[in-house]
Design brief:
Layout lengths: L6 E4 L6 E4 L17 H11 L9 H4 L4 E4 L7 E7 L15 E4 L2 E5 L3 E7 L11 H18 L7 E8 L11 E7 L4 H17 L3 H12 L3 E4 L3 E4 L10 E5 L11 H21 L5 E6 L15 E6 L6 H6 L8 H9 L4
Antiparallel strand pairs: 1-2, 1-6, 3-4, 4-7, 5-6, 7-9, 8-9, 8-13, 10-11, 11-12, 12-14, 13-14
InterPro entries: ADP-glucose_phosphorylase (IPR053177), DUF4921 (IPR032576), GalP_UDPtransf1 (IPR001937), HIT-like_sf (IPR036265)
Protein name: DUF4921 domain-containing protein
Organism: Candidatus Jorgensenbacteria bacterium GWC1_48_12
């Protein structure tokens, strides 16, 4: 399998795309049990070890795409962006993805970009960065996103973070990823279609309507500042799921000003600190949903946002067989828990 190139295959029934990336199967994995046995403690220590961390000497072991420094002295870097060693998609200069057929099946070459954004401190994740450092991370996201926009082969760019083994983080050292692909992903397409249908029916942004509803009811609001609002969605898929919206309507993350991103960062750090405190250090994912990079005038109805999904639940037969998630947590109660001050 390792000789196979990445490719996207489309299900002819659902229309959904699946990315086949054999190279990802070579990346390191660290698994440890939830109990506190000596074996799990040892595995946990190995997972968190700086000695074996591939990002500790990143300027020597990787060819950086971008380096962000504090400016106080040479080599005092804060953020480095590199290519992923185990990419889900591969970049070919001046070569776009090829559409082709295999019998009844539609396929697209897995051509794109897979970058890793690495922060310096081995033991401080996003929630525990200084505000200046956290802001710098989002500025690095925006810078790299704007650069990738120049690639005419791309359809969508996803920025995301996996924190903890159960959230898919094979490396403990805090890092974030950008994956740019030649198709619009199914989940994003469903969101875009729903947003467009609402706009056609009511002439308003559905996300703006959600924000107005949540601010009026207040029950599911977790945090709010001048430019951003955090709430537990009324239709949450998972316990303690949160969404962060900029209050100002905008379809595109990359169009956000420095000040707007600072409000988003403040909201995100607050949310993650509460999740880590109230949920006993639960693993989680967060990601940015923004409009696609092509045909930009089509997506005026969309409202970019972040989603935070703590790993508190495992999908079983019913969820997999029906696509209907069973959420055991009322979002009103989840928001109430997360609003409470950390003791």
């Amino acid at each position: 399998m390792t000789n196979y190139k990445p490719e996207l295959r489309q299900d002819p029934v659902s229309g959904d795309w699946i990315l086949f990336a054999p190279k990802r199967g070579e990346k390191p994995h660290a698994f440890f049990k939830a109990n506190k046995s000596d074996k799990s403690d040892k595995s946990d220590r190995a997972y968190k070890s700086k000695k074996t961390c591939p990002f500790e000497n990143i300027l020597e072991t990787h060819k950086p795409i971008s380096v962000y420094k504090s400016g106080r002295k040479n080599g005092d870097w804060k953020i480095v962006i590199v290519e992923n060693k185990y990419p889900a998609v591969v970049h070919k200069k001046s070569v776009c993805a090829r559409d082709f057929r295999h019998g009844i099946y539609s396929l697209v070459d897995g051509v794109g970009h897979h970058n890793v954004v690495v922060t310096r401190d081995h033991n401080r994740n996003f929630a525990n960065l200084s505000r200046l450092e956290a802001n710098m991370v989002f500025l690095a996201f925006r810078d790299r996103y704007l650069t990738l926009l120049n690639d005419p082969c791309l359809a969508y760019i996803l920025i995301f973070h996996n924190w903890g083994p159960t959230a898919g983080a094979s490396v403990y050292h805090p890092h974030y990823q950008l994956i740019a692909v030649p198709v619009v992903p199914p989940d994003v397409q469903h969101s875009l279609t729903g947003s467009l249908n609402y706009f056609k029916k009511y002439g308003r942004c559905v996300h703006c309507e959600m924000i107005r509803t949540e601010k009026k009811e207040r029950k599911r609001i977790v945090f709010e500042n001048d430019g951003a609002v955090v709430f537990a969605p009324f239709v949450s898929r998972e316990p303690f799921e949160l969404r962060i919206f900029p209050k100002k309507h905008s379809s595109y993350f990359e169009n956000s000003s420095d000040a707007e991103l600072e409000d988003i960062v403040s909201a995100l750090q607050f949310s993650l600190k509460r999740i880590e405190s109230k949920l006993g250090g639960a693993d989680y994912n967060f990601f940015i949903h923004t409009a696609p990079v092509k045909d930009r005038e089509k997506y005026h109805h969309y409202h970019w946002h972040l989603e935070i999904v703590p790993k508190t639940n495992i999908s079983a037969g019913f969820e997999l067989g029906t696509g209907i998630e069973i959420n055991v947590m009322d979002p009103d109660f989840a928001a109430k828990v997360l609003r409470k001050k950390i003791k």
